[in-house]
TrEMBL record:
SUPFAM superfamilies: NTF2-like (SSF54427). Residues 10-100 form the SnoaL-like domain. This is SnoaL-like domain-containing protein. Transmembrane segments: none annotated.
Length: 107
C-alpha cells in the first residue's frame, strides 16, 4: 500500500478490515450508505454492520491492494474462506472522507 495513493476513506476501510475491527469499520460508511456484494445490496447502518460482521470480520478478511484508479481499487482478499486468496474490484463512492457506496465484484 506504500506506493499506491488512496483516498482517506479507502485507507480507513482497508485498515479497519485488516484489523478485524467492526467498531472501526462501521463509521467508515456515511449515513445512507449502500454496499453491493455477492448479488445483495445492504443499505443503512444495521444492514451494513451485519455485512461487515458476516463478510469481513468473521472470515478474517485481509485486503492487499494492487492498484487504485479513479474510484476503483483492485485488491487481493484472503481469509478463512474456500478458494482464497481471490482478486476483487472495490468501486467506492466517497463524500467527506466517508464511503457512500461500495460495489464489490470478483475479478
Amino acid at each position: 500500500m506504500d506506493d499506491i495513493t488512496l483516498p482517506k476513506a479507502v485507507e480507513n476501510f482497508i485498515a479497519a478490515t485488516n484489523a478485524h475491527d467492526a467498531n472501526a469499520l462501521a463509521p467508515v460508511f456515511g449515513d445512507g450508505a449502500t454496499v453491493r456484494d455477492d448479488g445483495t445490496t445492504y443499505a443503512g447502518e444495521a444492514e451494513i454492520r451485519e455485512w461487515i460482521q458476516g463478510h469481513l470480520i468473521n472470515p478474517k478478511i485481509v485486503i492487499t491492494p494492487t492498484s487504485f484508479a479513479g474510484d476503483r481499487l483492485v485488491a487481493s482478499g484472503d481469509g478463512e474462506f474456500p478458494g482464497g486468496p481471490l482478486s476483487f474490484a472495490f468501486v467506492f463512492g466517497i463524500k467527506d472522507d466517508q464511503v457512500t457506496d461500495l460495489a464489490i465484484d470478483p475479478l
